[in-house]
Amino acid sequence: MKEFIPVGLFGISHHTASVEIREKAALSEVGQKEAIQEITNSFRIDGCFILSTCNRTEVYISSEYVQVELQLIRKWMDTAGQLNCFTDDKITYEKHGADAVEHFFRVISGLDSQIIGERQITGQVRDSYETSHKMNCTDNVLNRLFNFGMQVKRKVYNDTFLSDGTVSVSFAGVELARKIFSDLTDKEVLLIGAGKTAELAAYHFKEKSVRQINVANRTLSKAKKMAKELKGRAFQLNELSEALQQADIVISATSGKSFLLDNTIIKPVSKKRRHKPLFLIDLAIPRDINPEVNHIEGIYLYNLDDLHSIIKVNLEKRKLEIPKAMVIVREYIEEFRQWISTYAISTVIKRLKEHLEIIRIRELERFRKKLPSENIKEIDGLTQSIINKLLRQHIKLLKKNKGNPEQYQQQLDLIQNLYKPDND
To answer: Is 137 considered catalytic here?
Structure first.
C-alpha cells in the first residue's frame, strides 16, 4: 500500500482534442490569473497552477480531497468559459497521485510534447508556475513538484539524446546552413518575412554568432522592428535585389501566394555577385522561391522537403531515447514519493500539535477559576510537557514504520481519525 500523494490534474492536449477545441479552452495570462484566484478561493485546495499553451490546457492542484475537487473545478471551468470540453471525458484526461506526478514530469521534460523533446515547453511550464507562485497560490507540495520536475528535465537532457537533432524547420534551416559553411561567424543572413518562423530562425542564427542578419518584409515597419532587435538592415520586398547583393544565406518564410524570387531577380543578382555562392532556404507554403533558380550557377536552393527528411531522421532517434528518459522519470517519482512521506509526517504532527494545543488551552480556561493562581504557570508548563511527550511518541512510531508502507499508512490514518476535531 503506497502513501497518498495529494496531487491531481485535468486537461486537454493535442493527444485528445482538435486545435479548434484547444483554442477555445486556452487561457490568456490574465485569464489564467483570474481562474487561479477563483479556484484557490472557492475550492478545498492547498495550491493550484494552470498551464495553457497552443497544445494543452491543464489545471494542477494539491488537496486532501483531490478527486472530488477536480470534478467540481472541471464543471466550474466549463461554466466560466461557456465550454463543454472539460466535463467531456472523451477529450479531457484526469490524473491523481503518482500518475499525476508522472504526467507532469513527462510534460516538463518534453516527453509528452507534439514534437518529442522540444525545449520550449519547459519555459512555458516555468512561466505558468511562477505566475501562480507570485500570487501565493502554490503550496509546499506544488513547489516541490515543480522543483523535482526541473531536476527531471535537466537529467533527461543531460543523460539522453531526447532533445538532440533538428526537429523544427527554422532550426533545421539554420543547421543546414551551418553544415554547408561550418563557420557562420563571417556570414550575412537575409530573412525574407518577419513572422514566427523567421523570428525563430533569427534566434538560432544569433546563437551561431553570424556577422549580420537583415530583414526584408512586405510591411517595412515590421522589418524595421525586427532588424533593430537584430542590429541589421531593413528592406521592403521591392528592394530584394539590393538585399541579396551581400547575403550568403537567405531564409524565406512569407505567407504570399506567388514566387518572390525567380530567374528574373536571381540571374542579375548572381552576375553582380560574380557567381559567389548564395544558399536559399525556402520555408514557405506556398513556396517563395521558384525551383528553376537552382539551375543558376552559384545558387543552391533547399525547400521544406529537404528539411523534413532531416527532421524525420532526428525524430526517430529521439523516440529511441524515450525508454531511457522514462527510467529517469520513474526514479524521480520515487524520490517525490519519499519526500511526500516525510512531508506527511511533519504535516500530520503539525496539525496534531495545533489540535492538542486548542484542547489544552480550552481545558485550562475551563478550570482556571478552580486552580490556585500562583500555580497556573507550573500547570501550564506541565500540560505542555504532556502534549510534547505524546507528540514524541507519535513521531517515533511513524518514523519506525516508515520503511513499511502499509503499517506507516495505517498509523497515519489512525492519527488523523483519532484526533479529528469533531471527536473531542
So the answer is: no
